[in-house]
Amino acid sequence: MRRFLFGLIGILVVAVIGFVALTWRSELPPMAPRAAASFDPALVAKGADLAAIGSCDVCHTKPGGRTYAGGYPLETPFGVLYSTNITPDPDTGIGAWSQAAFTRAMREGVDRRGRHLYPAFPYDHFTLTTDSDIAAIYAFMMTRQPVSARNEDARLNFPLNFRIFAAGWKLLFLHHDELKPEPSRDAAWNRGRYLVTGLGHCGACHTPRNSLGAEKRHRPFAGGDGRNWYSPALDASSPSPIPWSAEQVFNYLRHDFDPLHGQVAGPMAPVNHNLARVPEADVRAIAAYTASLNDTDAATQQRQTQTALAFARDREATLPIMRASTATTPRQPEPPDASAQSKEGAAIFAGACATCHHGGGEWPSTRPVPLGLSTTVHGPDARNLLHIVVDGIHPRPGESGKIMPGFAGALTDAQIVALAGYVRSRFSDKPAWTGMAEALQQIRRRPAVTEAP
């Protein structure tokens, strides 16, 4: 038994030494800061577009903070991480980083000093980014205004607060795949795939994750989570009643709204804000690839669209409680088997929602998307609808756009749950949501994330 124990200890020691040797990364020498004028302006401009597609500012800017100076809290099931300062400040940012150090961080998740970065930084997607694009992003970042801002330490659960576990995670889940063009697809589709799967890291939110926080590679774009919002599936399992066409995806990404799908909200809002200022060709490429994920032929899409439109119109035309401006329409009674909560939800809808969300059969372009077509209403859980009811939808300051007031202070938790349950049952044919009260409590405890920095 003694020999067995000593042998086991010896094996463990060798394994630990081997693991450390395998995951050790050297420190790269610091670089004297380069003058911004030394970078090619065309390369910087290209980097600006790429950084916008990657939404670098969204995570690397805390509320009220300087752009790219870090400090944004990223909540995970394992604790809270804080984004880093990526301005060219030589002491607290990346001003002393060479392009080689920047590339290593993007591709391998290792900083200049050789420390392993936590996978909240989506280097598992950036491995697909080309050398030339990384060089452009580097040029853009190194020409930003330097900001002196110390990085905050992660607050992760023990023992995950030791970075050696990030190295272990990478051994299990970091893949260095090569993205080869698909010859059967056109250039726009291939460009879109490159941006969506790589720099855009769309799967980081729209793909489910396993218990260790890694994306389930066998279920790409099958729906996931982003900042306590449900990120809808982009493949054939999408909850949208109408399959997305490339033009509809483009409208949604570029203009924040598509009349057959809905208004952008939540974590997608800052992403869209960035996509509104990049070349249109790139957004159309992203839309072309994203729309292809549902793999729906034109005939099927037309049939499903007609069915969904008919359902939505029927749900509105037979509303049991009409809005005040259609008071001449006879009031139809609630079904006799309706629950007390359903009746309360219907009454709240009539008083707080029907003015905008029921047009008496008319669907003008100025009104919101019909609830019977809403991806949010047809989603697998109530979080997105609860977020919208609590916080509303608002355009960025100084910009125009559709608006919905939030009801955080106007409705009690019980009323919001009743309203959400009624909207689900009235405007979808999906099963009733569960756990709404608990989900609402979590939303109430966390600040809304609806705008880009």
Shape label: globular
Structural class: mainly alpha
Strand content: under 5%
Helix content: 40-55%
- Span of the ends, CA to CA: 62 Å
**Unreliable segments (pLDDT under 50, ≥5 consecutive)?**
322-333, 361-365, 448-453
Largest sheet, described in full? 3 strands, antiparallel
The helix-strand sequence is HHHEEHHHEHHHEEHEEHHHHHHHHH
Strands in their spatial order, largest beta sheet: 1-2-3
Element layout with pairings:
Layout: H1 2-23, H2 41-53, H3 56-59, E1 73-76, E2 79-82, H4 99-108, H5 123-126, H6 131-141, E3 155-156, H7 164-173, H8 187-199, H9 203-206, E4 224-226, E5 229-231, H10 246-255, E6 257-258, E7 262-263, H11 268-275, H12 280-292, H13 298-317, H14 340-352, H15 354-357, H16 375-378, H17 383-391, H18 413-427, H19 436-445
Antiparallel strand pairs: 1-2, 2-3, 4-5, 6-7
Helix pairs in contact: 2-6, 4-6, 8-12, 10-11, 10-12, 14-18, 17-19, 18-19
